[in-house]
Design goal:
The structure is a homodimer of 253-residue chains.
Chain A lengths: L6 E2 L5 E2 L3 H14 L8 E2 L2 H8 L3 H13 L3 E4 L3 E4 L14 E3 L11 E11 L2 H6 L7 E11 L2 E11 L8 H6 L4 H8 L6 E9 L3 H7 L7 E9 L5 E9 L4 E7 L1
Helix pairs in contact in A: 1-3, 2-3
Chain B binds a DNA duplex (19 and 19 nucleotides) through helix 3.
DNA sequence: CAGTGGTCTAGACCACTGG
DNA sequence: CAGTGGTCTAGACCACTGC
């Protein structure tokens, strides 16, 4: 192990792979296999170093990358833990809509309403987004989030049918906490990363009714694909956000 | 130097500051002072280690953070360079609007039109965003970006008057390349980071005319504050984006 | 070839957490 | 107190760039 193998691509290009990236890949693989679940600690650096016959510094660098990928969280004195959507700290890791006032505490938790939850077959665009075939079984969910009684977010989301078999409107309504927390603890599918496409749109009449606005009210359309380990897409979500009292906050490096 | 001083806050809390962060602060300070300019190399790790009487590994960790902050760019075998907006690689570092087709190459460079450039006094909200006082002199610029002849982006931007003295519509029109590149090479003000607030809005008649749309067309409103070193705000920019052929692309960690 | 950043090691010590 | 992650060092070697 401590003499790293250089990997060679099919073109003969010597694509060098440093040891710590090999270690990172090994850890990722075990995470994907569910060896350590979200919220649980992974073994200590010394422990992993011994397992992989590598110095602590090398393991450290591997974990550094996993931490900056938000796959794992370090806590000094305690250990390194698999990232989760279940800590109430950051209620909604992937939701960047914040109240204009700025203080996220002034705002109570969202009131959630499941409008619909049905099994259906993937349309072409849903299939493409989820790496499925057109016609494959998917689950569709529609829900509304309201703040202080004001409906603010309308979401339609599609999940691949197989991994999410058994998901029903009742279970969704019974669940306390973020939906992504449910996905990871109930269906073993932690969402690690996401990509969004944002547009300004006008709602159709059904959408306008659910958000209690007119069809002339401009709304933010946020199309999100959420991915598990190894960038496998597991959710397509189309959100409509009212931006009269909230805005989408983004930081550019 | 290699016995790091612990800094104590006013409350008596022993806020420990590791050596590499002290080194990072020292390098940042020299960057701010203009000792090394955007695009130029900073001294080698060995060199800096000798200057600061610290091991190479410590300098390395300091530079690692500067690199992940996009303040500096590493190039193996060549050196470490101060980040710049001037490399045509990433034409617009802070612009996240991309064509729906996805391939950024299919699209030619933006056609830029300076609509207006005038000296004026800061309104209350502009002053707050730029950490100025209401009534302080500011420059306002309005411009339109078009792709393949289609006006797509309308931007209004405000700059503090003092650091940008001498900026005129003529100089803006004469400049080839990103505006932020001009700011850093002509005015010594590199923008390092930015924060955006995004909404969906309808344009007023003047805005609609400049973008060749009706006042019923929903547009993306992107309010950006760009910051130099040490998070000093140096630009407020309000953009209106057409999202019929383009979308705002974002990645969530 | 010399100089740069990048990897890896081994060991010492520090700061934080919990029992 | 022992165990965790976090810092720092010194030295060896590797990969990439340009002359």
């Amino acid at each position: 192990m401590n003499t790293p193998l250089n990997a060679y691509t099919e073109t003969g290009t010597p694509s060098f792979s440093p040891l710590y990236q090999q270690i990172k890949a090994l850890i990722l693989q075990r995470l994907k296999a569910g060896e350590w679940k979200p919220g649980e600690p992974i073994p200590s650096e010394m422990d992993l170093a011994a397992r992989f016959r590598v110095s602590q510094g090398t393991v450290r660098k591997a974990i550094d990358e996993l931490a900056s990928d938000n796959i794992v969280v370090r806590r000094q004195g305690k250990g390194t833990f698999v990232a989760t959507h279940s800590e109430h700290q950051v209620q909604y890791r992937f939701l960047k809509l914040v109240p204009d006032s700025g203080d996220l505490n002034s705002e109570g938790p969202a009131e959630r309403t499941i409008v619909d939850c049905r099994r259906q077959r993937a349309t072409a665009d849903v299939a493409r987004a989820l790496s499925l075939r057109t016609g494959d079984p998917v689950l569709q969910v529609r829900r509304v989030l309201a703040y202080s009684g004001v409906p603010t977010i309308l979401e339609d989301l599609w999940l691949p049918g197989t991994p999410f078999k058994g998901l029903t409107a009742e279970r969704l309504r019974a669940w306390r906490g973020p939906m992504y927390a449910m996905f990871e603890t109930e269906f073993g599918t932690p969402m690690v990363r996401a990509e969004e496409k944002i547009r300004a749109v006008l709602p159709d009449t059904a959408q306008a009714a659910l958000l209690a606005v007119t069809t002339a009210t401009p709304l933010l359309s946020v199309e999100r694909v959420a991915l598990t380990y190894h960038d496998v897409p597991m959710e397509l979500r189309r959100g409509l956000y009212r931006t009269d009292t909230h805005h989408y906050r983004n930081e550019l490096g």
